Amino acid sequence: MAEPETRLLMLIDDEPAQCRLISALAAREGWRTIIARDSETAIATLGTRQGMQLGAIILDQWVPGDDACALIAELKARRPALPILMLTTSASPLLAVEAMRAGATDYLIKPVAPDRLLQALRSATTLETPTDELQPMTEKIGATLDFDAMIGASSAFRTALAVAAKAARTHSPVLIEGETGSGKEMLVRAMHAASQRAKAPLRFVNAGGVPANQLESTLFGHEKGAFPGAFERHIGALQHADGGTLVIDEIDRLPPSVQDRLAASLQRGDVQPIGARHSFRVDVRIFAASNSPLRDLVASGDFRSDLYESLSAVLVSLPALRERLGDIAALARHFLARIGEQPGLRPLGITDGALSLLSAYDWPGNVRQLQATLFRAAVFCDGEALTAQDFPNLSSMLGEAPAIASQGSDGGGVMLYAPDGNLRPLEEIEADVIRLAIGHYRGRMTEVARRLGIGRSTLYRKLSELGIDNAA
Question: Which are the contacts of 259, defined by CB distance < 8 A and separation ≥ 6?
Answer without folding.
Answer: 303, 304, 307
